[in-house]
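Support request, please re-run this one:
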Amino acid sequence: MPSGAGHDALAIGQVLDTVMVFVPSKDGRSHCPVEWSEYADIAKAVAVIYDLILNMQ
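Re-run finished. Output below.
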């Protein structure tokens, strides 16, 4: 999914393959004091990362 987000992936992606997992936040707010993500959505992201790590070869 194309995204304007870069974070550390901009630098690391020059050397290693990178991925970012996006978690929905209330009202689309992020990187601010009122950012809130539901624990269930965070758990889904953790499961995606976990499965990715287990299946890397």
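The radius of gyration is 13 Å. The mean pLDDT is 90.
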